[in-house]
Design a protein that fits this description.
With 765 residues, the protein is α/β, with parallel strands linked by helices. The chain is 35% helix and 20% strand. Strand 15 and strand 16 form a beta hairpin.
Length: 765
């Protein structure tokens, strides 16, 4: 009996079968292990299928297939047997891109549809005429060395060369005899992914894949070299699978149905960036309608004063930010339709990145404005929803048991919905304000170069803010989880510094492991840093907040610990009391971050081949600082002293920036003054809270995260942060996490708070 070409991974043998098979074709000379970093990363409902041909990997003793047609026929035949009503996504890396394309050609005739073809770091069929000659082992050796496919030290070992080179030779023969130019384009949605540091397959070569499909083709880029699928697996998976993720169910399929026909370049996620296109093409794409109706986005046909309907529609717009800015044009078009239908003037400001735009809507003042505009600043981009398992489709906007689930529900499309619904309710009622009210949807808050600072620099006449409301403070309940306790409006943000750890040893064969391996040393250092705690150092805003918390809480032990912390005259007493405050809090992570410098560990990387013990291992983490708290330079020095010579700690600054410059830049951010508490906007918020949450204390506060406020505060414009709805610990933990949600009734009540705040700015009030 012949050996199967397919190995299905990450599918639960005792549960429902995966409804999507992600079929992976390896690059030249590689096999299934090249996708080791993909295991466990697929969204729920998807299974990884590794193509393992004869002569490669575990089948190295078999006669290799060196004919492209025979290869594709064999894989297609097995896929027909296992597909059986399941959706197929084909992903090919380098040479694997051609193999995936040829298999794709063979499946429609057998009524096995391919939902998407993804080609990564690969040349298109048109680059292959089939006129190549014989391929020798010397050719294979030169290829393996030139591409960095194999460690030169391994190739110098005759025993390894005997195993490594024949698969490379076989794959090179596949390419040499492939007459791709004679193939016909396929009608299949196609993602073409190029790696920005790839020395072998440039962007222009990847773009030529557009000629090989008659359906939509999206060209994306990811960080990394020719083997980016190993270096940056999350980014490559995101580029390939975004818009297809989610658990099985009608809601997922409904979203999926429109996603397959979306205009090229409008659906992105972690690590994937829309490749720059010529201006003419960009103009055409902006004008083209996308699937779902509307001028470049889904039309909204609900009640624009209903924040829940608005939030659902916003969540269903996938505005994932891959790291260099989101594709927000469809989202902006939806907002444009909503505001124009209400008679409100709008403006869309494009950025240099195609599809990445800012949106503005302006409700003018009654007569001569008494004050400069109030800006309701909400970012449209969201962090990606791939890599960790969701139980709800992240872009479906499902409401279950009184909770609205979806990426951005909390951060910050729920707030955006509250802003828009409250403002349009006033517009519908004919309210006139004493100043312009401007709703601004920022495109690059999470990451990217074209956010608020870019807009204020490049388009300074778009808006001149008198005050800004954006994301920030929370409404917290008493311990009973039902009674509102305290509401906050944040007046400053923490700022963070990216730090990198590197542990070194030496690389060797896995048969000869040794003490002090780089991965082990890195793990030991990370464990020690994970146990490190900075001192409790509440700044002026934190002290103000915790003083109000002591008066608001119904927990006498918590109140006593807070008062002891605030009254402490020694560092030891303050630390002891502050740690007790955190322990007794119902939101310990939140209160801990408001009291001290914190470390958050974001990534670790080591290894590049299954039989090599790597000589280096790296990790990155962020240190977040309170204004008026610890000095960043002192904390970096303290951490270096803690880890000693077991690892190297470096500060990751902007390109071309020294460590000293990066630290000084952070010190400058931390020195920006708090926003004032004596403004009419702050007082209007306090009055609004008294109306919507009687008896609840409303206070200024320190925000535990970073927002887009700094460019305004640098200009002495007050910026206030609010999440106007009640939150609990579980909701806060899901911010930027899995199954993000907000309470439906809490959103409605929070919108009422925004409405009452705006009512305090009526003309003549």
């Amino acid at each position: 009996m012949s050996t199967s070409w397919l190995r299905i991974r990450d599918e639960n043998p005792h549960g429902d079968p995966a409804d999507t098979l992600v079929v992976c074709f390896a690059p030249t000379g590689a096999h299934g292990s090249t996708f080791a970093g993909w295991h466990g990363r697929l969204p729920h409902g998807m299974a990884l299928v590794l193509v393992t041909p004869p002569g490669r990997g575990m089948r190295v003793d078999e006669e290799p297939v060196v004919d492209m047609a025979g290869y594709a026929d064999a894989v297609a035949a097995e896929l027909r047997a296992v597909a059986a009503g399941r959706r197929l996504v084909l992903i090919g890396v380098s040479l694997g891109a051609l193999l995936a394309f040829e298999v794709c050609r063979r499946l429609p005739d057998a009524e096995v549809p391919v939902a998407r073809l993804c080609v990564v770091a690969g040349q298109s069929p048109g680059d292959f005429a089939g006129s190549g000659g014989e391929v020798t082992l010397d050719d294979a050796r030169a290829f393996a060395t030139g591409t960095g496919l194999t460690d030169p030290e391994l190739l110098a070992d005759p025993e390894f060369e005997e195993v490594l080179l024949p698969p490379v030779q076989a794959d090179l023969m596949l390419a040499a005899h492939y007459a791709g130019r004679a193939s016909a384009p396929q009608h299949v949605p196609l993602r073409a992914v190029w790696a920005v540091d790839d020395p072998h397959v440039p962007e222009a070569a990847v773009r030529r894949w557009r000629e090989w499909t008659t359906a939509d083709c999206t060209v994306l880029s990811v960080e990394g070299g020719h083997y980016a699928h190993q270096e940056n697996p999350a980014a490559v998976l995101s580029a390939c699978l975004d818009g297809l993720s989610g658990a099985a169910g009608p809601s997922r399929r409904a979203v999926l149905g429109s996603g397959a026909a979306v205009v090229s370049g409008t659906v992105l996620a972690l690590g994937a960036t829309a490749a720059t296109a010529p201006k003419a093409a960009a103009a055409q794409r902006t004008a083209a309608p996308a699937a779902g109706g509307g001028a470049g986005g889904r039309a909204f046909d609900g009640d624009p004063t209903d924040p829940v309907e608005l939030a659902v529609a916003m969540i269903r717009q996938n505005t994932s930010n891959p790291g260099d800015g989101a594709i927000t044009l469809p989202y902006a078009r939806m907002l444009e339709g909503i505001f124009r239908a209400a008679g409100v003037a709008t403006e869309i400001v494009p950025t240099p990145k195609e599809g990445n735009v800012h949106f503005f809507a302006r409700v003018p003042a009654a007569g001569r404005a008494r004050e400069k505009p109030l800006v309701l600043l909400g970012h449209s981009d969201v962090v990606p929803a791939i890599g960790d398992a969701w139980t709800r489709e992240p872009f479906a906007g499902e409401i279950v048991d009184g909770r609205l689930y979806g990426r951005g529900a909390l951060d910050m499309k729920g707030v955006n919905a509250a802003f828009v619904a409250a403002l349009l309710r006033h517009v519908r009622q004919g309210t006139r304000f004493d100043r312009d009210i401007v709703f601004w949807s920022d495109c690059d808050e999470e990451q990217g170069p074209y956010g608020v600072r870019w807009l204020l620099t490049e388009h300074p006449d778009t808006v001149e803010a008198g005050a800004v409301l954006t994301e920030g403070g929370w409404v917290l309940d008493q311990r009973d989880g039902r009674t509102p306790m305290i509401a906050t409006l944040t007046c400053n943000d923490k700022r963070s510094l990216l730090l990198r750890l590197e542990a070194d040893s030496y690389a060797t064969h896995t048969s000869k492991p040794f003490g002090g391996q780089a991965v082990i040393r890195l793990g030991e250092v990370l464990e020690q840093l994970g146990g490190w705690r900075a001192g409790i150092r509440p700044n002026a805003l934190s002290r103000l907040y915790f003083a109000e918390l002591a008066r608001a809480t119904a927990d006498p032990a918590l109140a006593a610990a807070v008062r002891e912390m605030l009254d402490a005259r020694t560092e030891a007493r303050r630390n002891r009391a502050g740690n007790t405050v955190v322990r007794l809090s119902d939101t310990p992570e939140l209160h801990n971050a408001m009291l001290r410098t914190t470390l958050a560990f974001t990534s670790a990387k080591a290894g590049y081949y299954p039989s090599i013990v790597p000589g280096t291992a790296t990790a990155e983490f962020r240190a977040a600082f309170l204004p008026g708290g610890d000095d960043p330079g002192r904390i970096v020095a303290e951490l270096r002293s803690l880890i000693g010579n077991r690892a190297t700690l470096t500060v990751v600054g902007n390109p071309g920036e020294s460590e000293e410059q990066a630290v000084d830049r952070l010190r400058g951010y931390l020195a920006v003054p708090d926003s004032r508490h004596d403004t009419d906007v702050f007082r209007a918020w306090q009055q609004a809270v008294r109306r919507t949450h009687p008896g609840v204390r409303a206070t200024a506060c320190q925000f535990e995260a970073v927002t887009s406020a700094v460019p305004f505060r640098e200009q002495n414009v007050p910026v206030y942060g609010m999440y106007p709805f009640t939150v609990n610990r579980d909701m806060l933990k899901r911010m930027h996490g899995t199954d993000e949600y907000i309470g439906v009734e809490a959103l409605r009540q929070g919108t009422e708070t925004v409405y009452q705040l705006l009512a305090g700015l009526r003309a003549g009030s």
